[in-house]
Amino acid sequence: MEVSRMPNWLERQADLAPGKMALLAGDIRWTFADLEALARRWAEELARWGVGRGGRVAVLAQNSPRLVVLIHALMKRGAVLVPLNIRLTANELAWQVRDVQPHLFVFDRANEAKAAQVLAEAPVAARMLETLPLEGVTGDTGTECAKTSGGKTEGAGAGRAVSPYLDRNDVHCIIYTSGTTGHPKGAMLTYGNHWWSAIGSALNLGNLPADRWLACVPLFHVSGLSILMRSVILGIPVVLLPAFDAAAVNRLIAEERVTIISVVANMLQRMLEAQGDKPYPSHLRCVLLGGGPAPRPLLEECARRGIPVVQTYGMTETASQVVTLPPHEALRKLGSAGKPLFPVELRIAPLEVDAAAGTADAVPAAAGLAQGAPPVGEILLRGPNVTAGYFNRPEETARAIRDGWLHTGDLGYLDEEGFLYVLDRRKDLIISGGENVYPAEVEAALMAHPGVAEAGVIGIPDERWGQVPVAFVRLRDGAAWDEAALLHHCRERLAAYKVPTRIYPVPELPYNAAGKLLRRELYKRLPPECRERMS
Predict the structure, then answer these.
(1) How many other β-carbons are positioned within 10 Å of the β-carbon of residue 143?
(2) Are 412 and 421 in contact (CB under 8 A)?
């Protein structure tokens, strides 16, 4: 066997623990043997559809057991998964389809209308996910879907379309980034990227026999997809939800004995609101909190209630989780994303002065949060879980990965013990009168007010200061709007240059499918006179 090869992860788990639960979703109770048998059957069908090694398959589908089987079937064919964000418009999706030129476009019935629009703009071969059969599955803990022996399907012709190996250097998927400026880029993640991310996660969080990981984030996002990869690498059952619903998440944590869950701050806040004063069960050992800097008031509330929140930092380009706070440090290092996972190197680079890039790139390298604070810089990462690059974007790849280091575009600092504190996205940094204003810091101050449920902060042009911060807030139910009181609250907690010049009430804040705040969308909610000044 070549050094870069390893057994197919799902097939190996089906051999090691065929009767262990692999997927729980509503009435579905599939063991690893069940999932393996279905994935083999579907791989045969994909072969008949012409899907082969290296073939790119774009998938537009919501979370479902069928999508899980498809993902594993594509791995057995050696095909490249291209998961598409179902929340994008048909026009946005058509651009990605034209860019990646898939050999096949697969969609589910829930997205049939949108798929038709995409295919009208970007004609490619297409199939509906529901045409792939699930008959024979019992829906409980049985293995009626196929007779298995040692994790391998029996029967005539079984396995002829299935590769028993994975190559760590092969591209597993191409995931398009959020595209905050210009068109999104397709980050290529290899099997090796997923492998080392899962191993690093297990070395940090542990891998216990009773673990069950709740996937309530989209599988088309790296945070959701990485849960499926960890499941078959580490032998962890996945509890799957079609979409995030705070009440359903809280119920499943108790009913399905979930031990680990991946969420972002907005999701966790809604879970707490739905849970009320009821405590979470003791078997919930880890709430993995990612998606950017977490508001300190939220972390303090979780600490008060004994909720085991563990902050983490990651991105599409690092196969999700890359820096995580060890569970035993969760309270001592409240607010830190932790230290790099075992295979990863991290350093903070002085910000480069680039006049062509605008004022946000001309930040002094020694800038810090306060006098004597550690210097703030750009977070750089290096390790075997870092992307192989961007699909058909050699120049973009060369700009992002230099001398082996991924330039994340995120700002942060390391404390005296080497723990990472993530401040904000570099592009979101506000420069006001030569001072750094981190939106996440202002948002946290606003969310410390008892009447504020969520907050978002952006910078707008100002003739005197260059930029000034403005804020948008969603009030808690029953709270009365009082801008003057909120501004006074901020002045008591923030330096004068960080206090928003205006605060606007909104019924909701814009988030992407992974639950991250889309600050760029807040500009559309400014009053007309502000937007005119920016044009």
Answers:
(1) 22
(2) yes
